[in-house]
Amino acid sequence: MKKVMFINDLLTRYLKIFVFGLLLLMPISCNDFLDEVPDNRVSLDNLDKAQQLLTNAYSISSYAFTDWMTDNVGFTTGVTIRTNHRQAYQWEDFTDGPTEQDTPIFFWFETYTAIAHANEVLAILEDLPSNTEELQAQKRATESEALLTRAYGHFMLVNLFAKHYDESTANTDKGVPYVDTPETVFIQQYSRNTVQEVYDRVEEDMLRGIDLVDEGFFANSGKYHFNLNAALAFASRFYLFKGDFDQCIEFSNRLLGSNPSSFVRDMTSDEFQVASSSITGYPQLYSSPDQPSNLLLMRKISLVQRNDFAHGPLSSFYGDLFASNPFLASTDTRENPAFVKGNNALFPVRYESLFERSSLNSNVGFPYHINLAFRGEEVLLNRAESYLMSNRIDDAIDDLQILTDNRYIGSDIQLTMEIIRDFFGASGNPFVTDRELVLDYTLLERRKEYIAQGLRWFDIKRYGLVVEHVLADGFSTIRLEDDDLRKILQIPGSALDVGGLEPNPR
User: I want to staple 384 with a disulfide (CB 3.0 to 4.6 A). Which of 267, 399, 455, 465 is the partner?
Assistant: First the structure.
């Protein structure tokens, strides 16, 4: 089902008069038009309106479509396969228009639109009245949210549409435009900042945003705004991807504190075990803002939650993945519940499949799900990986044990280096280091934890993993090599044509 355009309210229309040159633009008859107010927009003349506008600074596009490009999926029969599903599975450049959800093109346009909302707010903040301490605090909180959303949007864009950060080449690798001002001309030409420049500016916005966070203004938001915990989780991911492991550990520590397990949902608990018998109750529990592990929730227009669309994890692979662990007679609680997907696949129950009507009396609208943008489990795994890269192997195993205690049911689930070596068949092998083996185990746990949620793709990019897909005939295969250029998604055609950007090499 095509997405019905979400621009309905006045605050959103305030922005849409200046959609930047990166987007598809409509012709305007005269330059004087730019001096007028063409759309009856609401004037941003107080902080309450500015904060309302920031609800649109969270992109409605999901990156979970990247799972179709990973080693998590196989050729699935008995489901609807659209053009974008085929192109993702075969690592082709996408050709759908900007309103086709679950594509890089949709992600590009909607994320830059979200960034534009943040820029509109940041541009007018200084002019808004703040003559009381309460208003000054509200202004700081508003600035914090705008900076964090702008930083997060650019961070996800550069990690999809550019090479993964490499300190030795980041100064020359082409990134994405870092847009930090509202549009003031009809057709704006842009250039691609380098990956280093994008990371530097993301870091600047992110750290400033963290310094200004004031959770008092979002106490009842249901975790749909950047609170301090979400901002710290963002920093944890940012520094992991950058390879600054000391900083990743520092920001992860600030979140996890002295009781990291409090940020990890206990899927072995009676609550989760009872909920696993309900395909509606389980995803509601999993994505609930009441879960301490859920740090930031975002509404995403998407079809990835539908089990009758696109490729999925083949049944044989799915069973093998969750049976793969070093513990005897244990059960990985992440395996169930799962939907049957088509004729030969399964799909883990993670998303509540939601639908929003375009009006109260309408039968049309758009499907969406609630995305867990940041979770405590991710921060724990980020820290474990950073410990490994800092040669703190025992600390990494301690973090992995916390996840183990909350995921596996069994009589003996104590994680040790000896058990990990046995698991990988490397006992007594001096040519394989402990760090290599614990890293492999950490990536396996990340794969299980994020399946169907999109983060596996970034691990494939970060570590240059090879992916092989079997085609429709059941035996022909295609491969995505470790340094394959197709791991860098192509810049949308209209951004190349209108915005003047350079394409990624193929």
Answer: 399
Position 406, amino acid: N
Tokens of 265: 């949902």
Residue among 386, 396, 378 nearest 295 (CA): 378
* Total-model pTM: 0.91
Could you read off the pLDDT of 364-389 as tens digits, one per residue?
888 999 999 999 999 999 999 999 99
Separation CA 504–CA 406 (nearest Å) = 42
For the segment 30-48, the average pLDDT, to the nearest whole number, is: 54
- Helix (H) or strand (E) holding 338, with range, is strand 338-341
Mean pLDDT along residues 124-128: 91
**φ, ψ dihedrals at 186, nearest 5°:** -65, -60
For 228, residues 6+ apart whose C-beta sits below 8 A from its C-beta are: 210, 213, 215
Torsion sign across C-alpha atoms 156, 160, 162, 165: positive
Question: What is the rounded CA–CA span in Å between residue 169 and residue 154?
Answer: 19
Taking residue 36's Cβ as centre, other Cβ atoms within 10 Å add up to 9
Q: Kindly give the pairing relationship between strand 408-409 and strand 331-332.
A: antiparallel
pLDDT digits (tens, 9 = 90+) for 322-349: 999 999 889 999 999 999 999 999 999 9
